[in-house]
């Protein structure tokens, strides 16, 4: 049993290290890659050094209690992470169901490079375009401000992408170009909704990445959107679980900051 546990730790740790190293090698250095990489190092270290660790712990009862306590804490944290992933999958599945008629479609920004949407943002826009085609009566809002040293707002770049890629007329798209966070995305979009006589209590679609749906819905509800419907765009498999991992901590941070 002990030998099997060592093999499992080494195997899991190696997978985490290889996965995160590959992502960091292409400039994806963030919380969702660095922390799993460190966890992988700990797993491999424990697997390879298990005999020595056991000898040290056998001679020091206090250290042994601390060691078991840390593993217990990790186990409880891991269970909370699995619950988050389960809730996220439920939220994503809900967004895949047939949507009722919505009064507006808010597309949340996710970064641009050289005046073009990042792949993640392009996926959100492509997902939104399908809904726009299905519900031509809905007001369209692209939401995202102007980044550092950028000359165009993210909302403007998003609107241009929808027009050029999906032939959606620019005069149908309203741009919220001041926001720098999800909280501001939804708060500033309310102004546009109010200008067009749309109440926050009617069904409103919020298009975002699959990993971001729980937090976006929670913030929307906190701001008074009573029927927010999150529509999830797919995240590439190569970064999906790292993004979910990062979002777990972002969700906790948002809760501490009382965003919802």
From TrEMBL:
<dbReference type="InterPro" id="IPR003848">
    <property type="entry name" value="DUF218"/>
</dbReference>
<dbReference type="Pfam" id="PF02698">
    <property type="entry name" value="DUF218"/>
</dbReference>
<keyword id="KW-1133">Transmembrane helix</keyword>
<protein>
    <submittedName>
        <fullName>YdcF family protein</fullName>
    </submittedName>
</protein>
<keyword id="KW-0812">Transmembrane</keyword>
<feature type="domain" description="DUF218">
    <location>
        <begin position="104"/>
        <end position="249"/>
    </location>
</feature>
<dbReference type="InterPro" id="IPR014729">
    <property type="entry name" value="Rossmann-like_a/b/a_fold"/>
</dbReference>
<dbReference type="InterPro" id="IPR051599">
    <property type="entry name" value="Cell_Envelope_Assoc"/>
</dbReference>
<keyword id="KW-0472">Membrane</keyword>
<feature type="transmembrane region" description="Helical">
    <location>
        <begin position="34"/>
        <end position="54"/>
    </location>
</feature>
<feature type="transmembrane region" description="Helical">
    <location>
        <begin position="66"/>
        <end position="88"/>
    </location>
</feature>
